[in-house]
Amino acid sequence: MTAKTAAKKSETETHETENPKQDPKDTSNRIKDPKDWTTGSEPMTGAQASYLKTLAEQAKDDEAFDPDLDKAEASQRIDALRKETGKA
Fold it and tell me: Do the Cβ atoms of 48 and 72 come closer than 8 Å?
């Protein structure tokens, strides 16, 4: 291996280890409590509404789905229903 090849390999390895997408130990920005979301008070997304409706039906809990939930509330309810239905 030439010096140039070795240097390039070393540089590549350094970039790979610095890439947060490849470092599963770096959870600093992945998990945030929904009540700390800056957009948590906005209406839930269409995807959240759909998933929440599906989970509520699977849990046979007609009161679990509320179309007026905000993003943070929907996320918390989805997490609870996922646990209840064994999907977590």
Answer: no
Domain residue spans of the chain? 34-85
0.70 cut: is pTM over it? Answer: no
As a whole number of angstroms, the distance between CA 82 and CA 32 comes to 18
Tokens 């600093």, located at residue? 28
pLDDT at 16: 54
Indicate if the pLDDT at residue 37 is higher than 90: no
Helices (H), the chain: 3-18, 46-58, 71-85
Closest CA to 68 of 44, 41, 38, 52: 44
Residue 41 and residue 67: Cα distance in Å, rounded? 14
